[in-house]
Design a protein that fits this description.
This protein has 376 residues and is of the alpha/beta class. The protein folds into two domains: 124 residues, Aspartate Aminotransferase, domain 1 (Alpha-Beta Complex); 238 residues, 3-Layer(aba) Sandwich (Aspartate Aminotransferase, domain 2). It has 14 helices and 14 strands. The protein has a seven-stranded mixed β-sheet with strand order 2-10-9-8-5-3-4, sandwiched between helices. Strands 11-14-13 form a three-stranded antiparallel β-sheet, covered by helices on one side. Strands 1-12 form a two-stranded parallel ribbon. Helix 1 runs antiparallel to helix 10, helix 2 crosses helix 10 and helix 12 packs across helix 13. The longest helix has 21 residues. The radius of gyration is 21 Å and the shape is globular. The structure holds pyridoxal-5'-phosphate (PLP). The site of pyridoxal-5'-phosphate has 13 residues, from helix 3. Pyridoxal-5'-phosphate binds next to helix 3.
Amino acid sequence: MNEDFLLMIPGPIPVHPRVFRAMSMKIMPHRGDEFNKLFMEQSERMKKIFKTKNDVFIIAGSGTAAMDAAIANIVQPGDKVLCITSGKFGERFRDIVKAYKGAVIELKYDWGMPIKAEDVKKALEKDPAIKAVTMVHNETSTGVRNPVADIGKIVKGTKALLVVDTISSLGGDNIEVDNWGVDLCASGSQKCIGLPPGMSFISVSQKAWDVIEKTDGTCYYLNLKKYKNNKYKAPYTQPVSMAYGLKEALDIIDECGFENWIKKHEKMAKATREAAKSIGLSLFPHDEKTCSNTVTSIKVPEGIDGQELVKVMREKHGIIIAGGQDHLKGKIIRIGHMGSVTEKEIIVTMACLQMSLKDLGYNTELPSILTPIWKI
Ligand SMILES: *Cc1c(COP(=O)(O)O)cnc(C)c1O
């Protein structure tokens, strides 16, 4: 396989070599004291990233495993769940609720449109039997950050649980599980935390435990009660190498300082947006104020095929960006700027984006430094 490519999709991300070196350490016995100390220390450290005092569990599985765990442990057939959807991953939560035979009440927005807390308030007032509200913090399919804090304020005053997917933002954006009143917060390893895919995280509030204790959930591997009651907070074999990697990834974040790490994401996002706008492109999110810190989605200009653009980026420049999903296929491109990505990668990605657009007939004037390169 040709390894000479730059991965700029919204996860998985290019993993820092330090993380890979840590992961190559010899496997320790997963029930030994040494490993369990390391493992439990990392879940403690994850609490800082979630900004919570709640329990945080590490689950072997991709991010969806944590979303699945959140629903499986609180939803029984017929339970009403308000699912807020404004993109692919909001819809995933809705589909998980359906899979556990919950009664979905969908609060649906067009992809890219902002979620309004007022609508959530109305829906909860209309139906006080609603047991949970699901939403995505950072909707990766559209590049929109949703107002979890505002919705948390509303849900807090009801008996419903707030269930949030922060898979593509945890570590790369400010998330305040406790202050915002998030009861179940699901996340994953392969985005802003900076690990390969395969590990997921979930935080569980006391309000959520009270529901979980009373719910006869349809789950075995993802039964959170087993995680809580296990001496090592992990009932089955932990992903040992990933735990080594997690320690290293959290060390990297700590060395930078967590708040600086988030600021760096903010800067990369702004640089990407401004670079796109500077060559006449438009951002996909309806309102720039709602733009994500970790993924930028850009409209493909009229007359250009977005799938072709992704292909030119990959084949000519070795840069892998993402296209649109579902009905946005060909219409938008998405650039991830997560984890250890710096302006070096943003510069090369945006420069190659401009050259690729020019290849496809987009009317744009290259800066003098790119003109001779483009002509090669
Ligand atoms: C990437 C992503 C997921 C999917 O996670 P997997 O790790 O593929 O299971 C879910 N939600 C959001 C918002 C994501 O960005």
